[in-house]
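@here heads up, posting the sequence + SMILES for the manganese (II) ion run so it's all in one place. Ping me if the SMILES looks off, I pulled it from an old spreadsheet.
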Amino acid sequence: MLDMLRVEAVKAAELIRKAESVHIYTHYDADGISSGAVIAIAVKRLGKQFHLTFLKGLNSVPECDSDLVILSDMGSGYPDIVSEIEQDVVIIDHHYPIGRIEAEDKIVAHVNPHLAGLDGTYELCASSTAYIVAECLGNNEDLTAVAIAGILGDKQKIVGGNEVVVKKGIELGFVDVQKGLNIHSGKLREVLQLSTEPFLDFYEKDAELDEFLGKIGFSGEEEVDELSEEETRKLANAIVIRLLKQGAYDGVIEEFIGRKIVLKEELIKNAVTYTDVINACGRAAACSVGFAICAKDESYLEKGYRIWKKFQIELLEEITKRREEIKEGECIRYLVMEKAPSTGPVATVLSRYLFSDKPFIAVNIKNDSAKVSSRANPRIKVDLGEVMRLAAEKVGGRGGGHSVAAGAMLPADRVEEFIKEVDRLCCAMLSSS
Ligand SMILES: [Mn+2]
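bot reply: prediction finished. Complex structure tokens:
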């Protein structure tokens, strides 16, 4: 099924082999960091030097001296910028490609599942696509484990292309899928309290948590990884009931129940924790720590854990505060914040676990511009990538992304107009579906 994608991956691998120096530009989230790491490690194994730069987005032509530019988890949506790059370019991305890349004096290898007739929204992310390229560069099968951080980080499914990658990791002993729950390892009480995937709404709700634990016969001191099958089942049932009561999207249930993924050779074995730590490093402007963990540099592990815990508590504080500020449009829910520490993670949790019946739009105003994160789920028949693009264009901004997760940037003084347009577009899509 990956044949067409491999054709382009082979072309990318040829460009990488030919290049003397490589500069990788990647996104700062978990998928960006892990895809950047997969490619960087594969390049290093060829004995080549690489530069790695983490970007929030591809806003201008990257300046570099290397003779090959690799864009990872970005590039497909910016044909104008890619066209202006002087060097040969490898794009490893899963965002929907738009426009046409003009490659007059250079070679462009564009490895994107959408261009190979594959699903880039749920079935292949940047890191699993990067793994397909790494596979063409040598014996890099251990990097299947690193790629899992991108799959989980981008909330994709282990089906299609992702499944091919994960299965390879299992076959060769780098990944193990065991019966259990897809939650963090550690003491049950702390795991439930700090969890945001799934978000169980126990943060600073000790009495409620005590009651929850008491009802199913736990003290909270149990180690999650040591629960018996019967205990795990009991816990899972109680969590499902709680999730449904609090308004979670029911698709999240199958994501955390039944199996847990173990990365046998990585510094952090629990795949959920591995992903979360890398994601938190990205959000905390410490991408290099996340990268170091992907590259198995043990000296960064403790720092990574520290960053993660701090990030998790800040996120929970932010959720507690912001859920009171949510407004309702005709067909959407939205949140307008000023100088909030983050937009995407809050929008993700609120839209998945508390308000999953309508598209959710979070706007963060900083100085003159507003950053927008929008979220939906497959039950809501809207294409947020398209909504963000059209609504942002209308107000002099720029937007796009996936159907269930998209974003935009726009002038701060036009937020109101933008929200109205988003609402109108969502209503139109919902009524025509
Ligand atoms: Mn991605």
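MO: The radius of gyration is 21 Å.
MO: One more: The mean pLDDT is 95.
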